[in-house]
Amino acid sequence: MTDGGTPQGWREHIVLYAALAANLGIAVAKFVAAGITGSSSMLTEGFHSVVDSGNQVLMLYGEHRAKRPPDSSRPFGYGRELYFWSFVVAILIFAIGAGFSIYEGWVHVQEPEALRDPLINYIVLGVAALMEGSSWTVAVREFAQAKGRSSWWGAIRDSKDPSSFIVLFEDSAALAGLAVAAIGVWASHYFNAPWMDGIASIVIGGILGLVAILLAREAKGLLIGEPADPEVIEAIRRIVAAHPGISGVNHVRTIHTSPETIFVAVSADFDDALAMGEAETLIETIEQRLRHDMPRLSSIYIRPEKKEDAVASREEGDGL
């Protein structure tokens, strides 16, 4: 994978760059509109865009840090650092985005601002919807290509690259927030009830809170460690079992060390007739085959183990 500064790197990060560009422009416009009209929901939306912009910067930083090669202090690489920053993003959305939105809404419900001409709010919301919609379209297109035949939710649950679904969630929440803000501005003027604009801010905060919880749940799974897809595990098992000298494969255990790299540990029952030197050569041959067929396997460990020993070890572990 190339550096983010190359043309290929720009392609890899197109979703993040598109979202960042949209959010920076939208944030300025929302704050200007909020300052002129005193709208609570517009102010909330402004901070929403600022938080989203910060999130994209953190994700780009996480992707950059995750590409560092392994060293003595991190022999399996830094790939999972991306998962850490994904979790930080979820916390920021919840603590800053949702928290501020709900607080700001409550303040305006208690002490509503005097109503002013809402035209600039509608203009800014319309422009923001176009920009967010463009970013959302890019995110949907990229994720649709990546998910293949999987369902949308299934692809999100199985995805090992948080940057793709985080932007998709953020943009979806942003479009929903814009719709709520527009309804809040309209309702407050139509019913001559300024406090309804504060209610819109609280609803936006609720949307952000829900998104943050979903993202935190997915990021937590990646941070703790998720196995490779079942198809990958089955392919590893099949390759190992196909070699003469292997009586059977006891288990294949995997964990993603980054979206594109996998650690794998294999327990296999070797033919009793193999000498020590022959077993070592066989292990080397299997590892070379696995690396050739499956380049994402960054670290491979193959352990000779009798089937009955592997079963006993597993049962002992289950009893702990």
UniProtKB/TrEMBL annotation:
It is a multi-pass membrane protein. Keywords: Membrane, Transmembrane, Transmembrane helix, Transport. Residues 17-223 form the Cation efflux protein transmembrane domain. One of its GO terms (cellular component) is membrane. GO terms for molecular function: monoatomic cation transmembrane transporter activity. The keyword Transmembrane helix applies. This is Cation diffusion facilitator family transporter. It comes from Stakelama sediminis. The lineage of its organism: Bacteria, Pseudomonadati, Pseudomonadota, Alphaproteobacteria, Sphingomonadales.
